[in-house]
Design brief:
Two copies of one chain form a homodimer.
Chain A lengths: L2 E3 L1 H8 L4 H13 L3 E2 L4 E5 L4 E10 L4 E10 L10 E9 L5 E5 L4 H18 L7 E4 L3 H10 L7 E5 L3 H13 L3 E4 L3 H7 L2 E4 L18 E4 L12 H6 L2 E4 L2 H6 L2 H7 L8 E3 H6 L13 E4 L4 H15 L2
Parallel strand pairs in A: 1-7, 8-9, 8-11, 9-10, 11-12, 12-15, 13-14, 13-15
Antiparallel strand pairs in A: 2-4, 3-4, 4-5, 5-6, 6-7
Chain lengths: ~325, ~325
């Protein structure tokens, strides 16, 4: 029977792999058209509200292809369950045969998403981070900061969330993780105190507005991955000096960039694709102290391909 | 950990379920807009040639949703492997959580595809089947006939295939299954001898032409499920008295009907959707002795939903 790995197996394997370079290479391959990544499959549910995304694809000339199913059911915490779940499937590119089932319960998606944020910050964040701001109090609100921690000495963290209880839990957890955490009463107050902001909510109305953003700020917006979710007012992208999307074709359809394009506040020619931005140094703007940048992460199957491939290789050792 | 079922488990469960009514109900639910079935996800491979289809969806108000991954790698038999493989995943519609992994190796797809053919023949085939014709010698060439056997006393079978070796194996197998099998040198000779024809190949050029088809013939074309595959010359559909597709939205994009529409030989208003054809007796043409009918089966996720649901229910007993 095909290899079926539990979350425990996967976490153990992952602890022995330095994933960030793999994901970074994945973005570059994607922007170089070396990856086959069809449009995201989507199932939407009304009652209870939820969405499931199916991301799939392969790197040309590789050994495997990957299908990833990830869902977010946002009322799950009310019944004591994680809002996110899912699995990844690894198949042979030569025979189509299923090789491994990674029952990661959405964990690999969380990791590759957090790593994409780390990569965006690596190329876009100001050199001197005065404080890190987080909008939201869920899994990514934690993991994005944990991964960012690798690349900065800044330990000042501001957070805003809708639920007082969740904010309190977040403050407790992140203080344990070594941060000095300040919870504030509005997203605007996060922006007023921070020059790196990570937005991590499933909001469908803008939470941050252009006038709130300090000069020199980098924003990683990773919460919106459908055509209905939106965390940033489109004027933020309109006024930003640098706008980077993880996938131009996806960002046309979903996420923050799609809203700003539709509002006529942003032109597609001014949107950089992350992999191209990484690979082509000449395309990168020289960042000055007042530069405002936005990275819009909708999640690309190439991240799933890379993390699944690396984990499978480790598990097979 | 989530329940993972092997092919053996699945076959055992399936043997205790009468699946045909479930699949038939699925088609009806689909045509009544009670099913959510987004467009098929597709990955194509060049070297070796292969395709993977991802079909997914749910019946509104049900307990589960299903994601099915099925691939066809047509050179696999050269290295001793089955050309088709795959699995089905069953998730909760209430929490998104994975409930069961059905490692069916493509078997459930084969079964639900064969059952769709049986259903098409039930509503469309002439009352007196003089001989059954099969184009192709693969898995579906066998299973379609096996399932059709339930509803007819006809045991005369004509077959055409490209490979002499595969034809010989097919003849041997189907004679064991109780048929009198005649292999012929061309698809046209199958048509000249049969008033029910099933086409089961991954051909990309037409194999059957309008002038070959006897009056009173029913054709189930199930081989073409992409926009490049085609088994029937479009004139067959143009001249047919009844054309039924399993999914109008899919048949616009892929399969035989899409070719005939694109060629201007068929109008969409003359295409019936299978579920509607089953449910709405008034829409059915009275079949006379000279009536030619075509059922174009591209494979709909609702079949996967129904078979996965029934198998899971049986396995949980």
């Amino acid at each position: 029977m095909v290899a079926v790995y539990s979350l425990e197996d996967i976490k153990r394997a992952l602890s022995d792999v330095e994933m960030t370079p793999h994901i970074e290479q994945g973005f570059v391959a994607y922007s170089n058209n070396e990856a086959v990544v069809p449009p995201v499959g989507e199932l939407l549910f009304d009652d209870p509200p939820g969405d499931t995304h199916i991301k799939y694809g392969y790197i040309k000339g590789g050994d495997i292809y990957v299908v990833k199913i990830a869902s977010g059911f946002y009322k799950n915490p009310e019944i004591g369950l994680s809002s996110s779940s899912g699995l990844m499937l690894v198949f042979s590119q030569k025979t189509g045969a299923l090789q491994a089932v990674l029952l990661d319960e959405g964990y690999l998606t969380n990791v590759r998403t957090a790593i994409a944020g780390r990569i965006a910050a690596k190329y876009l964040a100001p050199k001197n981070i005065q404080a890190i701001g987080v909008i939201g109090t869920g899994i990514q609100a934690r993991m994005q900061v944990e991964y960012l921690k690798e690349d900065t000495t800044c330990r000042d963290l501001f957070v805003w969330g809708r639920s007082d209880g969740k904010v309190a839990a977040y403050v407790r957890d992140m203080e344990k993780a070594g941060f000095k955490v300040t919870s504030v009463d509005s997203p605007a107050l996060v922006a007023k105190n921070c020059n790196v902001i990570i937005t991590t909510t499933p909001s469908t109305i803008p939470l941050l507005f252009a006038d709130d953003i300090l000069p020199g700020t980098h924003i990683t917006a990773m919460g919106s991955d459908t055509d209905t979710k939106q965390e940033l007012d489109a004027n933020i992208l309109g006024r930003a000096d640098i706008v980077v999307g993880d996938s131009l074709s996806q960002c046309r359809e979903r996420g923050e960039i799609s809203k700003a394009l539709a509002a006529g506040l942003l032109e597609e020619k001014n949107v950089h694709e992350l992999g191209r931005f990484i690979a082509d140094k000449s395309s990168r703007k020289i960042r000055d102290n007042s530069c405002i940048s936005v990275a819009d992460l909708t999640g690309v199957a190439v991240q799933d391909i890379q993390i699944a491939a690396a984990v499978c290789q480790q598990l097979a050792k």
